[in-house]
Design brief:
With about 220 residues, this protein is α+β, with helices and mostly antiparallel strands. The radius of gyration is 20 Å and the shape is globular.
Length: about 220
């Protein structure tokens, strides 16, 4: 496990715990709390007094984990991410928990969700480094319709392995029929892409651009 707690939490696959409402993504708050407490049993959080902006409201929460407090704010919003006028107790409570998850995310858990996308930014790739001599013997995605299984052994040429990952991923993207398919391909096979990100960052950046371009193509079709 990394000594950097942020890196440790950021490396956790959150895909199975993302809740969808229309085109918005939310990380399950019970699961987020469970993961936080497993990694730091002394973690705690505090909700602050809501602030009013005319007839809308802002909630805030401070999460202290690994001895570091982080405070985040969140407008009380509806399912379309629009500020709610004169919110009632029920929707305020829902948004307080969303704010709690947002503050936990700032410690690393599922942070990329709050970039407004469900795919990580290619710019987040680390600086290039020499490729490993050989990849792990078998790296495969989560079992499902879009699972990739990239086999290798000690005699596998690493550059050839990278090529297989790139070709298989791009073939899957061409097969995708919707924006959801694109996101599922990434989520199911994230362990493969994380390995690519570490061992071949330039190829990772290129592939993530392909993911984003394919996703945008479906968005454009939906808006036309």
């Amino acid at each position: 496990m990394s000594d950097n707690h942020f890196v440790t939490l950021a490396s956790i696959d959150v895909s199975k715990h993302i809740e969808k409402k229309q085109n918005l993504s939310y990380l399950s708050w019970p699961w987020a709390i469970d993961q936080l407490m497993r990694h730091d049993p002394s973690a705690n959080w505090e909700f602050h007094k809501p602030e009013m902006f005319e007839d809308t409201m802002m909630v805030s929460c401070t999460v202290t984990a690994f001895n570091k407090p982080i405070k985040m704010h969140l407008p009380v919003m509806d399912h379309r991410n629009q500020a709610v006028k004169n919110p009632d107790a029920f929707i305020i409570n829902k948004n307080m928990m969303r704010c709690l998850v947002k503050a936990i995310a700032c410690h690393g858990l599922g942070l990329y969700i709050y970039a407004g996308e469900d795919l990580p930014d290619p710019a987040d790739a680390p600086a290039p480094k020499p490729a490993a001599k050989a990849p792990p013997k078998l790296i495969e995605g989560t079992p499902g319709g879009w699972q990739l299984s990239i086999k290798a052994d000690k005699n596998t040429d690493f550059q050839a392995w990278i090529g297989v990952v790139m070709d298989a991923s791009r073939m899957a993207l061409k097969t995708a029929q919707s924006e959801k398919d694109v996101l599922d391909i990434f989520r199911v096979n994230r362990v493969i892409f994380d390995t690519l990100k570490v061992e071949a960052p330039e190829d990772y950046v290129s592939l993530m651009r392909d993911f984003r371009d394919r996703r945008e193509s479906f968005k454009e079709k939906e808006s036309s």
